[in-house]
Amino acid sequence: MNKFILKIRSFFYLLPNITEALFSKPETIAYPAVSHRPSESYRGSVRIIAVNCVGCGLCVRDCPAAALSLEKVSKGCFRLDHYRDRCASCGQCEMSCKFNSIYLDNSYKEASADRVDFFEVLVDKTKKK
Amino acid sequence: MTIEKTAIKLQEILNLDRSTKKLIPLNEVKITISKQQILLAVQTILKSGIWHLSAITCQQLENEFNLLYHFWKSGGLTLLISLDEKNLRIDSICSLIPGAEYYEREAREMFGIEFLGMPNPLPLLLPDNWQGGYPMRKKEQPSQEKSKENPAQEKGKSA
Amino acid sequence: MNQLNLFFRIFIFPGFLFLLVTALFLHWLDRKLIARFQGRVGPPWYQPLADLVRLFAKEDILPVGSNLFFAALLPLISFASVLTASFYLPIAIQSAPSFQGDFIVLLFLLSMPSLMYFLAGWVTRGVYSVIGGNRALLQYFSYEVLFLLAMSGTAIASGSWSLADIRLEQIKESPFIFLQIIGFLLSLAGLIGKLKREPFDIPKAKSEVIAGALTEFSGKKLALWYLTIHLQTMVGLSFLIHCYFSGFWQMNTISGFFIFLLLLIILQGVLSAISAIYARLRIDQLIHLNWHIFIPIALLHNIYILLI
Amino acid sequence: MNNITVPIGPQHPLLKEPLSFLVSLEGEKVTDSTLRLGYVHRGIEKLAERRTYIQNVYLIERICGICSHIHSTTYCQSVEALLKLKVPKRGLYIRMLLCELERIHSHLLWLGVLSKNIGFNTLFMYAWRDREIVLNIMEEISGGRVSHSVNIIGGVRVDINEKHLSLLQKSLQELTIRVEEILRSIENDRSFRARTRNIGNLSLEDIKRFCVVGPVARASGLDIDIRRDAPYAAYDELDFEVPLMTEGDVWARSILRILETIQAIRLCTQIIHNLPDGPVSVTAPRRVPAGEVVSRAEAPRGEVFYYIRSDDSQKPARLKIRTPTLTTLITLPGQLKNMQLADVSAVIAGVDLCIACGDR
Fold this sequence. Notes:
By secondary structure, chain A is an alpha+beta fold. Chain A is built from 4 helices and 5 strands, in the order ααβαββαββ.
C-alpha cells in the first residue's frame, strides 16, 4: 500500500514540504535591516598591542599576502605598517609573533572607495625619546 | 601486493638493474626507466591490471627535465624518465590511456616537451596568443620581482 | 455625461489603472508565495512597481542587424491585444457589451502575445533568442490548442459562444466548477503553458537560453513585455474565474467584487504552488505530455459534456 | 535550422566559473562540443615555488573555494611526510572532521546548482538552506565559513571545546533528518527524475579509459575511495561504507552524492564521539630536508594528487597539483554527443565541475 501512495505522491512530491515551509518562519534574514553577528573565532581586522612589539619582523616574514612592512631605523626605533587591502585575515602573524603583540579581533573591515584609507601605521617608534 | 609484483615484473621485462627501484614517502614505488621504454612499460602496467594514471609531473633540474608518470591501484607506482635539455621528445601515451591527454598538453605548454603522436596538440590553460615562452621553466626568471606598487605603498613610503 | 462615464470605465475602474494595480499585486503575491514556499523572506510589496519604473528609466539598446521597427512594434501589439481582451471580459462590476462569439475573440486576443513572443525571437538576431523563439512556437501550437479545447467545455455546456450566456447558464444551474473539474484543471494547465510559467517555462529557461526571445530587449520594450506577461496572467485568471466560478457572486455589488478578488488570489496561490513543486520539463517532454495525455482527456471530457 | 554553434561561453548562468564551451547544434540535437580551459589559471604551481612552506598553506587553500580544506590537508600531510613529523592524534581527528564537513557542504552546494540548472528552484533553496547548518558549524569552529585556514604544517591550529561539541551534536542530528528528506525527494520526485534519468551516461569502460575518479566513477560502478583503499590521516580507525551505483547517469550521481553526505554525517558523529585528547599540533621546522613525496586524498570530487620535491631550503623546488575536475572534464564532450540542448545543463551540473580547481 505504501508503494502505491508513494507512486501517487511522486507526481507532486514536494507539496507537503512547501506547505510546511509556508507556515514556518523563513530561514533567511532581511540582511540590511537585520545585521549578521559574526562568531567570536571570526578573524576580522588586525590589532596590535604596541608596547609588546619589539620590531623583530617575524610577522612580516611569514605574512603570505605581504600585508605587513617594517621600516627599521635602528635597534629600538622602527615603524610597522599594515596594508589592510592586501590582508587576507589568515591569522599567520598572530601565530608567528613570539611577544603576542599582534592579534586579530572579529570586527568587520569596512569597505572604502580609496585604497589609501586601507593603509595604517600599527606601531610607530621612530622618534627617540 | 599488485604494485610490488608489477614493479618486479617491469624490471624483468625492461631488464633494469636493482638500483632503479626506490621507495618514496606515502608508500610510492618509483622506477627509473629510459625514454625509449615508455610505451612498453605502460603496456605491461596496463596488462597487470593497473589502469589509473593519476598525473604526469614534469620538472626542470640543472640541465635535464624529469617526467614522472604516477599510476595508482590502492598503492602508488611512479615511472621516472629523464630527458636531456637538447631534445625534449618522447612518445605520447594517449593511444594507450586517453586520460593522459590533458596532462601531456599541460606539460607541453608549460615546459615545452614534445609528445609524438598527441591527438590534439592545443594549449590547455594558456591563451592561444601566448608569447611568454614556457612559464614553468626555471631560467626565464621574470626580471622585476615586486609587482606594480599600489598607491597605499607609495603613501606608506612617504609617510 | 456618457463620455465621462465611458472615460472612467476605460481608464480608471475596470479599465487600465485597476488592471495594472491588480496585475502588479498578483505578480508580487506570486513572488512572495514562492519565496515563502522555499523558506525565504520574499520581496517587499513595492518590488514589481520598482522593477517596472527601473526598466522604464533604463537605456533601450538592440543588437546591430535587428529590425528596429518590428522590435518596437511587437511589444506594443502584444500589450494592446491583452488590454482589449480585458475590455471584453466582465470583470466583477462592469457588464461588458457581450455578443455572440466574443469567447473566441477573447481566446484569440489572449494568444496574440505568445505569437509576438516567437516573432520577437526572430527579429533580434541573437542566438539565444532564435532558439527561445522556436521553442515558444512549438509550445504555442500545443498549449493554445489545449487551452481552447478545455475552455470550450464551458461553452458547449452553455450552448453558446457568448460570455454573458455562459454566466447566465451558471447562475441558472450551478457553477461549472462542480460539473467540469477535469476541464478546469486542463484549462489551468493550458494557461500555465500559455504564460510559460514554471513547469513549462523552457522557452525562457534562465539556464539554457538566458531569457529566450527577450534576451536582447531592454529598457522600455522589456518593461512592456513584462507588463504584458503580468496582465496576461491577470486576464487569463479572470477569464477562468468567469467561465468556471461565475455562479458565486452577483454583478454590480461590492461583495461580488471582493469575492472575485478572493478567487483571483486563491487561483494565483494555486499557480504559485504548481510552479514551486516541479522542475522545468524539456521541450519534447512538454509536447509529449500535451499531445499524448492532456488533449485526449480534453476531447473525452468534451464528449462527456455533450452527452449530459 | 541547420547547425548553429551555441556558445556556453565564459559567462553563462549554467557555469558558476568561467569555462568556454562551444556546442554545435543540429536542430535541438548536439552534434559536437569543444572545451576551452584556462580562464581562471593563476599559475599556483609557479607561485608556490617563490613562497616559503608556511606561506604556501594559505596559497594552496585559495585554489578552490569549496574544497579548500582538502587541498591544505594533502599539502600539509605531504610536507609532514618530508619532515617525518608525527601529528598528534587529536589534530588528525579535527582535520578529518573538517574534511567531512566540507564534503557535506560541497555535495549540498552541488545539489543546489544541479536543481537550479534543471529549473527546480525549490530544491535549490532547500539544499542551500540545509547547507547553512554546516557553514555555521564551520564558522563557529574555524572562524571562516568557506576558507577556514585550520591546517598548519604539523597539525591543526583550532581546538574543539565543549561549546563546539554540543553545537555539533545538535546540528548533525538536524542535518541527518533534512538530508534524508532531500534523499527521499530526489528518489521519488517525478519531474526531477524526468530531467536526470539516463542523461550523460558514462560506461564503466569509459571511466577506466579516462581514469575518472570520485562520485562520477563510483556512480558507474568503479569501487575506488582513497579514504578506504589508502587511508590517510586517521581514516583507518573509522568505519564507513562507500556507496556504489551502476547506472552511471546524472540521476545515479545525485543519489550517490547524497548517500555520501549521509556517510559523511555518520563519520562526523563518530569523530566527535571518540575524539582523543592531547595536543592538536606539533611545531614544524622551517627548512625541509631534500626529498620528494607523492600524496593523495579524497576530495568531494575525487582523488586529489600532490607531488612535492624539496631541495633543503625554505621554499619547495616543485609542487605539482592534479585536481579531480580535470578527469571529469575530459569525459564531457563524449557525454554530450547527440544530446538535447536542454539536457546540456543537467550534464554540466551532473559532473560537478570545480573549474577553479581544474585551472589552478
